[in-house]
Amino acid sequence: MHTHRQTRRILAAFLASAVVATTALFGGSAASAVPTTSPPPAVMAGLGDSITQGIMTCSSLSTCAANSWSTGTTASVGSHASRLRALNPALVAHTDAVSGANSGGLLAQANKAVTQGASYVTIEIGANDACTRTVSSMTPTATFEANVRAAVGALTANGAQREIFIASVPNLMRMYDINKTSTSARLVWGLLQVCQSMLANPSSTKAADVQRRAAVLQRVVEYNAVLQTVCSQTAKCRYDGGAVFNFPFEKAHISTRDYFHPSLAGQTALAAVTWPATQWVS
Questions:
Q1: Dihedral class, residue 194 (left if φ above 0, else alpha if ψ from -120 to 50, else beta)
Q2: Domain membership flag for residue 119
Q3: Chain centroid to CA 237: how far?
Q4: What CA–CA distance (Å, rounded) separates 151 from 110?
């Protein structure tokens, strides 16, 4: 009898392993898992800047929200909205992000999301606070914190139990390193005046330019520390743990229209690295 019980235990363990393996083989993943901590939202909103607007991912230089990592509808991107629709097909997603916005514009976006009845809000902000014409014109860290706190405060006012997800600011030094040797990229950065605090004089190795780039990177690190702190002090907020900042972007992830914004592949990567940190997976 002892031998039979042992055999049954081994068989049960084997079957359990087979279920896990089969799930993985046929596409089961955390992205499609049944939510464990929060019910799926009926309405969501994506706040932030041109990254969440999907700019530079369509045929023109305009916004292309269909390709957004947050609220997009393009199937290949696998946005948060697309994954949530697997749980609630009736989900309505609003792209409230504004191209060119910095943290100072976040409160207005948050208020808009509230009026839309969004119960899930993603926030991606900070690149334009650091991407300015000069280092001295970057948003001070204390101001950035005040702006983010005001927006999160609006989302949580009057005891609102709104789910919030905050993505870290991308590593702008990585964006520079990827294409700093590209003649096309250097030309476009100069013509379009892209993120000059980081990308001015891209070929220069002079101490002043090296220090300038390091100062921008340090400010981004400070912004991410703010995002993490503010989120940690909000009960229904999830921070990505630095997933976007630490993601090793490659050339294929960056648009060749401005050599700075995420390409379609980049938006897909953003969706993939942020989703595991959301309320419906972790």
A1: beta
A2: yes
A3: 14
A4: 6
Phi-psi region of 232 (alpha: psi -120 to 50; beta: other; left: phi over 0): alpha
Task: Identify whether 112 is part of a domain.
Answer: yes
Give the pLDDT confidence of 3-48 residue by residue, as tens digits: 344 434 433 433 333 333 333 322 333 333 334 467 899 999 999 9
Cα–Cα distance between 168 and 206 in angstroms, integer?
29
pLDDT digits (tens, 9 = 90+) for 40-85: 999 999 999 999 999 999 876 677 999 999 999 999 999 999 999 9
Rounded distance, CA 263 to CA 267, Å?
6
Q: Which residue is it, tokens 């009960």? A: 235
pLDDT of residue 61: 65
CATH number of the domain to which 96 belongs: 3.40.50.1110
Q: Which residues contact 280 (CB under 8 A, 6 or more apart)?
A: 33, 35, 36, 37, 38, 40, 83, 84, 87
CB 127 within 8 A of CB 49: yes
Which of 42, 48, 50 is CA-nearest to residue 89? 42
Angle, CA 256 vertex, CA 171 and CA 251 arms, to 5°: 50
Q: What is the pLDDT of residue 26?
A: 28
- Which residue range forms the structural domain that includes residue 156? 39-170+221-277
- 120-124 and 163-167 strand pairing: parallel
The structural domain count of the chain equals 1
Name 124's bridge partners. Answer: 48, 167
Q: Beta-strand (E) ranges in the chain?
A: 43-48, 92-95, 120-124, 163-167, 237-239
Contact 130/169 with Cβ under 8 angstroms? yes
| CB 126 within 8 Å of CB 147 | no
